[in-house]
TrEMBL record:
<dbReference type="InterPro" id="IPR018028">
    <property type="entry name" value="Catalase"/>
</dbReference>
<dbReference type="GO" id="GO:0046872">
    <property type="term" value="F:metal ion binding"/>
</dbReference>
<dbReference type="InterPro" id="IPR024712">
    <property type="entry name" value="Catalase_clade2"/>
</dbReference>
<dbReference type="GO" id="GO:0004096">
    <property type="term" value="F:catalase activity"/>
</dbReference>
<protein>
    <recommendedName>
        <fullName>Catalase</fullName>
        <ecNumber>1.11.1.6</ecNumber>
    </recommendedName>
</protein>
<keyword id="KW-0376">Hydrogen peroxide</keyword>
<keyword id="KW-0575">Peroxidase</keyword>
<dbReference type="GO" id="GO:0020037">
    <property type="term" value="F:heme binding"/>
</dbReference>
<dbReference type="InterPro" id="IPR043156">
    <property type="entry name" value="Catalase_clade2_helical"/>
</dbReference>
<dbReference type="InterPro" id="IPR029062">
    <property type="entry name" value="Class_I_gatase-like"/>
</dbReference>
<feature type="cross-link" description="3'-histidyl-3-tyrosine (His-Tyr)">
    <location>
        <begin position="356"/>
        <end position="379"/>
    </location>
</feature>
<dbReference type="GO" id="GO:0042744">
    <property type="term" value="P:hydrogen peroxide catabolic process"/>
</dbReference>
<feature type="binding site">
    <location>
        <position position="375"/>
    </location>
    <ligand>
        <name>heme</name>
    </ligand>
</feature>
<feature type="active site">
    <location>
        <position position="91"/>
    </location>
</feature>
<feature type="binding site">
    <location>
        <position position="177"/>
    </location>
    <ligand>
        <name>heme</name>
    </ligand>
</feature>
<dbReference type="Pfam" id="PF00199">
    <property type="entry name" value="Catalase"/>
</dbReference>
<dbReference type="InterPro" id="IPR011614">
    <property type="entry name" value="Catalase_core"/>
</dbReference>
Length: 702
């Protein structure tokens, strides 16, 4: 044994803490000198005592038992034991980003909320995206609703818009929330499946509780598997009441419109991603923001008259299972959100952020939607357990960016050192204040009625808008819905549940019901499908023409001998359009030298098609011994099967042919990667997928 038995580290690896010549440590440079960032050089206890050893507990001799007096050991382990807080009961899996919201100034006629009404008004925001059912460590790409929660740190107090990527909800009254969530969460005996709705309890509940049908249809559509948080719409779901500076009110629905368009994964990709890269959406957002490719959305408002019955063209605005088609009430864009900064610390920010629908500002009010009313209770209540007491608004991420004088005192985890002696009103001791001023005033509304546990009769319509949604989709999107129902119900064990859900489908569309029934090997029940209003083309995600390709990932298959100057020529227009180019080669490292040198970011071993929105094979690859590598062929074939744009120039065409891809829609072949080639490629990627290929893929012709 070595003379100094305490030295267990390899001495070559034990580097001293770097100290800069100015006396400031490198760590201070790194962390910007904020004392709370723990930027100092010396390791200490929580009390500031400098430590000389944190690798060995205090023992009675090198082979002896540990001593109870080792305060450092006990402090370190005790703190570690308590590092986790309860995960959110829903929306546990999330990722977030900071940004700013800038108002266009055209919302003043509807609301006096300054952050919306004043042109150019800039507001700090924090947005947390999430799945609903999965645990904190579950995969991002599961079929589920996505949360889209925005905290606006306005000058008038914090406003939280706690929405989803689906404009309707499973239930009409918050009292049913524990029921739908218990049904959707894993089975209580085995705690499986994780983050899935494809199981008996979910379909048991939604087939019995048919007001869930509309939301279920959105989940089974491509909306349930977004390509990126960047390509996802957001909805406030409920109807809110807005009030302008003249005291006039209107009803409104909030929308987030992604600048990059609304796009989704295909189911097979989502499944592969859940295994290959469970952090798919989280990574996509963090990488893009770090690279300066910010996420952008416009805030939209559907403004509706504040009619006494709170309905619009027959749609009950208090029913959260209904939406207002954009063709009936256009979405007016009132400001732009840019997410441009990643959190510094996941726990402090993304995990500890606490949203609450009661966080309102003057000009925005709630309505009597019974789901909204229950949420007004739940969010504050849940934080008490999750964040350990009533002082969570003092956590840095939850602090308003405006003055707070709340007279709330003491409690667990109090971090403020309040001054004064009179945290009560009225008082004469602390100068009589803080004073109530021109603050938030609820719009006076008549409230009368018998005390009942009932819904309005209009809430009884559970199917017409589900049918409207389904029939507004393009044929290929309808096929995806059909396949999703067949998959999810196919995962159920109980025959009675499948049969009951087929009865629901029969009310929406006979062909849908028959196809799903055939897939399940069950007879299709007969029923008269419900009637619905005119279809809403805005509900289809298929773009009418090429859209932006910002943030899209283009894989370029290269290798030793590849046409590197061609790659460089193609890279320029792609990056100018906002896309990210990633070189894929048989081995890692660099290709070539000089101006056209390319860094290999993925190898045939590490690349998987799900990562790329389109793939190009460079000329010069066909001659390399690895051109026929099975992984490379799978990469190309998968991208082809998922209806992505595939391209090749020069002898790259041979590589495609070797993978069985000869041509057809969305396969761009050229001699050179010239300007025309680049333009056609950008346009094709702008259409997101090559849906014309879908039938051939489904018929397994490739
Ligand atoms: Fe909720 C979290 C969105 C209905 C109770 N909800 C939560 C989050 C989002 C939503 C995005 C995550 C916030 C974050 O990132 O921290 N919830 C919705 C939408 C709903 C909805 C759009 C319907 C329109 N929720 C709903 C009901 C209840 C709750 C009806 C209870 C009566 N929701 C909660 C909660 C959560 C939550 C238990 C869990 C953690 C948290 O609040 O902070 O209070």
């Amino acid at each position: 044994m070595a003379a100094d038995s305490n030295v267990t580290q390899n001495p070559d690896q034990a580097a001293p803490a770097p100290v800069s010549p100015t006396g400031r440590t490198e760590r201070e440079h790194l962390f910007g000198g904020d004392p709370r960032a723990q930027a100092g050089e010396h390791l200490t206890t929580s009390q500031g005592l400098r430590l000389s050893d944190t690798d060995h507990s205090l023992k009675a001799g090198p082979r002896g038992p540990s001593l109870l007096e080792d305060h450092h050991l006990r402090e370190k382990i005790t703190h570690f034991d308590h590092e986790r807080i309860p995960e959110r009961v829903v929306h546990a899996r999330g990722a977030a980003a900071h940004g700013t919201f800038v108002a266009y100034g055209n919302a003043a006629s509807a609301t006096k909320a300054k952050f919306l009404a004043e042109k150019g008004h800039k507001t700090d925001v924090f947005v947390r995206f999430s799945t609903v059912l999965g645990s904190r460590g579950s995969a991002d790409t599961v079929r589920d609703t996505r949360g889209f929660a925005t905290k606006f740190y306005t000058d008038e107090g914090t406003f939280d818009l706690v929405g989803n990527n689906i404009p309707v909800f499973f239930i009409q009254d918050g009292i049913k929330f524990p029921d739908i969530i218990h049904a959707g969460k894993p089975h209580p005996d085995r705690e499986i499946p994780q983050a899935q709705s494809a199981h008996d309890t979910f379909w048991d509940f939604v087939s019995l509780h048919t007001e869930a049908t509309h939301h279920v249809f959105w989940n089974m559509s491509d909306r349930g598997i977004p390509r990126s948080y960047r390509t996802m719409e957001g909805f406030g779901v409920h109807t809110f009441r807005l009030e302008n500076a003249d005291g006039e009110t209107c009803l409104a629905k909030f929308h987030w419109k992604p600048i990059a368009g609304v796009h989704s994964l295909v189911w097979e990709e989502a499944q592969i991603a859940a295994g290959v890269d469970p952090d798919f959406h989280r990574r996509d957002m963090a990488d893009a923001i770090e690279a300066g490719a910010y996420f952008e959305y416009e805030l939209g408002l559907q403004l509706l008259p504040d009619s006494p019955d709170e309905t619009f063209q027959g749609i009950d605005l208090l029913d959260p299972t209904k939406f207002v088609p954009e063709e009936l009430a256009p979405v007016q864009r009132v400001g732009k959100l840019t997410l441009d900064r990643n959190p510094t610390n996941y726990f402090a920010e993304t995990e500890q952020v606490a949203f609450h629908l009661g966080n309102l500002v003057p000009g925005i009010q709630v309505t009597n939607d019974p789901l909204l009313q229950a949420r007004l209770f739940s969010y504050l209540d849940t934080q008490l357990t999750r964040l350990g007491g009533p002082n969570f608004p003092q956590l840095p991420i939850n602090r308003p960016h405006t003055e707070v004088n709340d007279n709330l005192r003491d409690g667990m985890h109090q971090t403020a050192v309040h001054r004064g002696q009179a945290p009560y009103l009225p008082n004469s001791i602390d100068g009589g204040g803080p004073f109530t001023t021109d603050g938030y005033v609820e719009v006076p509304r008549e409230v009368a009625g018998p005390k009942v546990r009932e819904n309005p009769a209009s809430f009884d319509d559970h199917f017409s808008q589900a049918a409207l949604f389904y029939h507004s989709l393009s044929p290929v999107e309808q096929v995806h819905v059909t396949e999703a129902f067949t998959f999810e119900l196919g995962k159920c064990y109980e025959q009675a549940i499948k049969e009951r859900e087929l009865q629901v489908l029969a009310k929406i569309d006979a062909t849908l019901c028959q196809t799903v029934a055939a897939g399940l090997g069950l007879p299709a029940p007969k029923d008269e499908p419900v009637t619905h209003g005119p279809v809403s083309p805005a509900l289809s995600q298929i773009p009418p023409g090429p859209g932006p390709i910002t943030g899209r990932i283009i894989g370029v298959v290269a290798g030793p001998g590849a046409d590197l100057s061609g790659i460089e020529k193609l890279r320029e227009p792609l990056e100018a359009a906002g896309a990210v180019v990633r070189i894929i080669a048989p081995q890692g490292g660099m290709l070539g030298s000089g101006k056209s040198q390319q860094v290999v970011e993925r190898t045939f071993l590490t690349a998987r098609s799900i990562e790329f929105d389109a793939i190009v094979v460079a000329s010069g690859v066909a001659e390399t011994p690895d051109a026929g590598d099975i992984k490379a062929r799978i990469l190309l074939l998968e991208a082809f099967r998922h209806n992505k744009v595939i391209a090749a120039w020069g002898d790259g065409v041979k590589v495609l042919a070797g993978a069985g891809i000869a041509g057809g829609p969305g396969v761009l072949l050229a001699d050179n990667p010239d300007k025309d080639f680049a333009t056609s490629f950008v346009q094709a990627v702008g259409l997101h997928r090559v849906w014309e290929r879908a039938d051939a893929v489904m018929a397994s012709e490739v």
